[in-house]
Amino acid sequence: MTEPQPLAGAEPLAEAAPVLEAETGTETLSVRRSKTPVILAGAVAVALVLGVGAFIGYRLLFGGGQPAERFPASAVAYISIDLTPSADQTVKLVKLVKKFPDHSGDADPKASIEKLLEKLEIKGIEPKRDITSWLGSRLALGAWSDPQGETYGLLAISSEDDKAATAGLTRIRDKSSQGMGFVVRDGYALIAVGGKQAQRAAEAADAEAAKSPLSAQADFSTARKWLADDQIVVAYADLGGLGRLADKFSKDLLPAGEDLGDLSKTFKGRVIGGARIEQDAILVRSRSFGAEPTQTAAIGDAIARLGALPAGSEIAAVASLPSGLSESPLAGIPLSAALIGGMGLGPSGGGLSPQEQTELNELMSKDLQNKLTPAEEARLTELMDKTSGFGPDLSPAEQKELDALFSKDELTEAEEKRVEELLGGGATGGAGPDIDAVLQTLSGATVAISMTGVADKPALSIVAALAKAPSADTISSLKEISPDLTVSVEGTTLTAKSAGFTAGGKLADDPLFKRATAGAPGNLTFAAYVDLKFAKKAGGPQTGPLTGLCLMAGTDQGDQVALARVLIG
Fold this sequence. Notes:
single chain; 16-stranded antiparallel beta sheet; 19 helices; 33% helix; globular; disordered N terminus; membrane; transmembrane helix; transmembrane; DUF3352 domain-containing protein
């Protein structure tokens, strides 16, 4: 078996979603229960098959070309799903699916897709005849611009019957007028959606892919080699290309005279990510190439520090804070809000009574299951509003003043000071802590955070190893950060704890933690661990067979890398 490489990497992946026009000259495509276009619905259905496990019993079609071989090299965003990447991944996926009792009996993915599409009740389209009769096990979607500069969503779907694919897609295209075009050849359907000349775009994209496929493009090829070969999901983005698209769209959408700057220069490099199945886990890894190097120092012993946190930690994290923190966007936000806003810590309960906190937990759990009534949704919003304030409540006049200040492009020094007063002090807060001094003190610090009682009685501990000892005035400011935290400073060590936090044992001794952090890369700047078993207590989030989550980010030879591992069962 091929084992995963012990790395991961990068920035959030940009996504591009194609749009399918559904109107014809005389009639509109009738979709009673969903407005999702049928082709995009097919893509989503395949993705759902992967997610819910309707994979058991699928034929093991390990041969055939990859979607990247049928995508044009100039595509700026690409994500593929391969349900049969290798025998190893197939066996592991089947075993993983069995851990989801609600879906372990879904033996035939095509039947599952048919059921999903039938629920959409699309007039004139028969899912079995027009889609699943030819649908293969590989699919990709992405964003691409034609030679005329028009942007389209592309779908590349493997075909087991090109004749049936042509017939089915022709019927679908006839229903969607000029909103869709396609080319079927050699076991793949390449579909363009979202523009008035979609058929011309599909033919142009197919012609480019025949001469210059994405799989042979140098940047993509280099990035793809970094991942293991057998990935269930692969996502890739040309950040500069996405920036150019964003520039174009911003000029079309924003009022005259307004722009977001040259985003093609702001976003640099490329990023790739992949997901594969491990034993009882899903591993997601990503890496940037050619992006701006991070200025944040690595934590040489990040996993050891994480493992040293209390064994009862339901959420635990260690992070290296960047230097020059006072110049970052955090400078305009009170540190108390950044650290504990909305978590209901301490005696004050974040503005909620114990009964309201319990009610909030129950509503959030129902929200995750999409079971809220309209009245419950309104109540959830009301409770969330009570926990998300930045500092003390403002009077209506103060809120109006703050809104007016936020609407300005530039603030004077006096106005900036007034914003800080309103955010940090309100009508009763007084001067409050010196936020700039606090942020300067935390610049370059290494912070360890532990949280317990997530579902019912949240308690928090923060320990920061500071770059230098703070002054007496700064220590006073640190102690004013929040009434819910007891803050102390000894030399270069800052400790902040909420009432009720107790420590005992070490995370490193927990077998679940050891599984989650196995194969961690070096040069980490951030690592976090979430024990999902504890999160289910007292009406907390319903996570099914998910038991743990680990997130890590760092650098490798100047590139940004990231890893996420989800433990199942």
